[in-house]
Amino acid sequence: MKTLKHRFVMVIVLFVMVIASACSSEKTEGNENNSNQEAIKIGVLASRTGALESYGEQTVRGFELGLDYATGGTRTVAGRKIEYIVEDTETKPEVAVQKATKLLEEDGVDFLVGSSSSGDTLAVLPLAEEYETIMVVEPAVADSITGSEFNPYIFRTARNSSQDAVAGAAAIAEKGVKIVTLAPDNSFGRDGVAAFKESAVKLGAEIIHEEYADPVATDFTSNVQKVIDAKPDYLFVIWAGANTPWNQIADMKVQDKGIKISTGAPDIAALSTMEPLIGMEGFTVYYHQLPQNEVNDWLVAEHKKRFNGDVPDLFTPGGMSAAIAIVEAVKKTEGNTDSAKLIETMEGMSFETAKGKMTFRKEDHQALQTLYAIKLEKKEGVNYPVPVLIRELTPEETAPPIRNK
């Protein structure tokens, strides 16, 4: 009896151990599932200080609004919460690298977004490849980002210099027209001029001089004088930053000398300095009254609500587009943030933005998008020249050359 009783106890013990083991296995598996539902982390690189501070602020605002729009205010996608960390690059490439490294190594982000400066962005691109992390580029525009320096982890919602160039050239270039360009002496400026020149020459225009200025200059007198000396039909200006050449262009009466001005209409702060250019025809990336779609309607209304009646500015919809692109990609992967899966998903992916439908071109991951041919006009009650729509330039029309290797 004792032996039989002992065996019975052993059977009970073994049964309990099996049940415990099964429960343990279920618990372990559940933990693994929970680990898959950890928050998605996004690192946002932006100029919060420096010459492009306003661009960084616009992008971050747009990004936050984009997360809310794309997730219905939950900041959750495919069952996973979204967290984001904003780091100031100070508009310095070496700082951008330090901050990106911190985001990748210490914070363990699943995505990078940024940056305000092409120089900052170009410095960070190799890190995205090294850490096999998707980087959504916004708002940097240098062609080389999705061109000579491209790697497969890079996707750009920002337009590039060639897209700007197509729009800018369409406004003024034709056979026999002589054009001088003025741009900052950096990757943004030189890539922009190269792209504009290519587009303008195809339309029959001649670029008779390229003038480059110090990106942090506050006095452009000598640069503008060289423009005047060249005696072009048009001066095409490519510029970014709080310091602009418009005061010197006005003071030196460039237009009175028979030289027409054309440029991309900038953000609202810079538009306020362009009073002498009323009547100018050019292009713009965005002005809040131009796109007619539900996403832009939501953006304008929500931005006014959150920011004391202020309207979204030039780079706000870009930040929004970056957030929407990430959320849409993760929806399609059902929460999977494996970079190989994301690349496969995002190549050729279309998504709705405040500027209409964007599509990541498979070959170079550049988002094809709408730009706007505009004329600057004076409007009652508005203290800056307002970009008024001449016509939309479609994504197909502004599609840039494929420049990556």
TrEMBL record:
Domain of life: Bacteria
Keyword Glycoprotein: no
Keywords: Signal
Leucine-binding protein domain mapped to chain residues: 40-378
Transmembrane intervals: none
Pfam families tied to this protein: Peripla_BP_6
Signal peptide region: 1-22
Family listed: Belongs to the leucine-binding protein family.
Name under which the protein is recorded: Branched-chain amino acid transport system substrate-binding protein
Organism name: Bacillus benzoevorans
Lineage: Bacteria, Bacillati, Bacillota, Bacilli, Bacillales
